[in-house]
């Protein structure tokens, strides 16, 4: 008879241990090692089940796509990120920091779909139905086809779906729903996995789109087991600075469309509003040119956005000059400062340097290098560029300006917005670009 041993396995990566530990030795996750209760030495088999007419495999050329036609959510920016609309039976996960506006956005989506004549079930596991009603009255998301339920039990949610038969199910949030069939508290790895698996299975069986709201940890990753992101079809992240009204939704995973689209929204007193053309949101309103500013064209998904980069240089009062950044990568700015001093004769080693973007947008692509460098050069010389100057390009350590993706689209967007002077990779080196930009400077009075 085979010896029965108790092993422990990580629910994230499958790592095994002879005894329980609080932290996985492979993926370094806390609280994911559970009792696997395995019997070693025994070979387990599964009896085959004959397929039915509904589940029988068929050639891919004979599969009908009629049941997978997208339907609009009524929110154009949300549809843009999803790839054109909501696919029947799709399981979507929306994550974001607390208070960023996830529930407000989904309530708006639910209301617009309900106003089109379809039934929507909004399950709030964190708020009462009265609290959701107050928000809906403030944002105008009222409809007789929008059903609210305050449930934290998975079985009760399934019962609500049987009674209402909705066309869309929204669960807010997946970390606060629990199943009695699994041990552990709500939000634990086993509970999150069971709840998500059950709701996804419901979505596939009934062609019912399901949107799950997910909490995030301190480092910005989705809370719960990593398998949650693998189970769903679409993973979207809702982000934005609380001090700014601007919000972005990005697709991190999309089985039905591209992942390079970005939706833009603005939080107002009446709820959340779409921003179809955010071209002017990241530019200053100053009519007089100011030194230390330069405009670049950033790519947010497939959308080209003009963004103003601002730099300020002052004499340092400490032995170690300060380097403060907001909206740009501090390591990238440090590299640009070194290239400026070595290749363009702009000495800033003993100065305090401050670099920021307008509107709270974050520039993470190397295409913003040239604009940052020109803004620093303008601040160092205390001369302002003309309003018609726009620059983009990646700067190498050798001082060369490298070409960036979507160059033609950036140039067309700059031309559409009225920028007359373009400095990009065709300008040559950083020193040449600085000279070309200085020809457009206006001496500050």
UniProtKB/TrEMBL annotation:
Q: Which InterPro entries match?
A: AAA+_ATPase (IPR003593), DNA_repair_RadA (IPR004504), P-loop_NTPase (IPR027417), RecA_ATP-bd (IPR020588), Ribosomal_Su5_D2-typ_SF (IPR020568), Ribsml_uS5_D2-typ_fold_subgr (IPR014721), Rubredoxin_2 (IPR041166)
Chain intervals for the UniProt region annotation (Lon-protease-like): 352-445
Keyword Cell cycle part of the UniProt annotation: no
What keywords are assigned to this protein?
ATP-binding, DNA damage, DNA repair, DNA-binding, Hydrolase, Metal-binding, Nucleotide-binding, Stress response, Zinc, Zinc-finger
Q: What is written about domains in the entry's comments?
A: The middle region has homology to RecA with ATPase motifs including the RadA KNRFG motif, while the C-terminus is homologous to Lon protease.
Its biological purpose is as follows: Plays a role in repairing double-strand DNA breaks, probably involving stabilizing or processing branched DNA or blocked replication forks. DNA-dependent ATPase involved in processing of recombination intermediates, plays a role in repairing DNA breaks. Stimulates the branch migration of RecA-mediated strand transfer reactions, allowing the 3' invading strand to extend heteroduplex DNA faster. Binds ssDNA in the presence of ADP but not other nucleotides, has ATPase activity that is stimulated by ssDNA and various branched DNA structures, but inhibited by SSB. Does not have RecA's homology-searching function.
**What protein name is recorded for this chain?**
DNA repair protein RadA
Q: Species name for this entry?
A: Lysinibacter cavernae
């Amino acid at each position: 008879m085979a010896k029965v041993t108790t092993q422990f396995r990580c629910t994230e990566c499958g790592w095994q241990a002879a005894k329980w530990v609080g932290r996985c030795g492979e993926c370094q996750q806390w609280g994911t090692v559970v009792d696997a209760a395995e019997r070693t030495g025994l070979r387990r088999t599964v009896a085959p089940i004959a397929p039915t007419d509904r589940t029988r495999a068929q050639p891919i050329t004979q599969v009908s796509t009629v049941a997978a036609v997208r339907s609009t959510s009524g929110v154009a920016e949300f549809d843009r990120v999803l790839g054109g609309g909501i696919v029947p039976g799709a399981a979507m996960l929306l994550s974001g920091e607390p208070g960023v506006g996830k529930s407000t956005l989904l309530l708006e989506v639910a209301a617009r779909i309900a106003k089109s004549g379809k039934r929507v079930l909004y399950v709030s596991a964190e708020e009462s139905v009265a609290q959701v009603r107050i928000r809906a009255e403030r944002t105008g998301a009222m409809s007789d086809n929008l059903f609210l339920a305050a449930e934290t039990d998975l079985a009760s949610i399934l019962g609500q779906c049987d009674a209402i038969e909705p066309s869309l199910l929204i669960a807010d949030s997946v970390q606060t729903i629990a199943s009695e069939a699994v041990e552990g508290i709500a939000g634990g790895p086993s509970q999150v996995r069971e709840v998500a698996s059950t709701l996804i299975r419901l979505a596939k069986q009934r062609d019912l789109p399901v949107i799950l709201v997910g909490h995030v940890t301190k480092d910005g990753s989705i809370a719960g087991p990593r398998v949650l992101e693998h189970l769903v079809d679409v993973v979207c992240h809702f982000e934005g600075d609380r001090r700014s009204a601007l919000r972005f939704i990005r697709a991190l995973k999309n089985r039905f469309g591209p992942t390079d689209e970005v939706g833009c929204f603005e939080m107002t007193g009446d709820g959340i509003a779409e921003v179809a053309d955010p071209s002017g949101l990241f530019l200053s309103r100053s009519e007089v040119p100011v030194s230390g500013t330069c405009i670049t064209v950033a790519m947010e998904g497939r959308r080209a956005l003009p963004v103003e980069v601002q730099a300020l240089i002052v004499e340092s009062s400490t032995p170690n000059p300060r380097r403060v950044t907001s909206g740009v990568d501090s390591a990238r700015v440090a590299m640009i400062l070194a290239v400026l001093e070595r290749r363009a004769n702009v000495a800033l080693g003993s100065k305090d340097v401050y670099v920021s973007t307008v509107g709270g947008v974050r520039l993470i692509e190397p295409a913003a290098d040239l604009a940052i460098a020109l803004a620093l050069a303008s601040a160092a010389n205390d001369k302002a560029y003309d309003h018609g100057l726009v620059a983009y390009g990646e700067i190498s350590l050798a001082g060369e300006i490298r070409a960036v993706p979507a160059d033609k689209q950036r140039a067309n967007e700059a031309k559409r917005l009225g920028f007359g002077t373009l400095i990009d990779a065709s300008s040559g080196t950083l020193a040449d670009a600085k000279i070309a930009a200085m020809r457009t400077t206006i001496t500050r009075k």
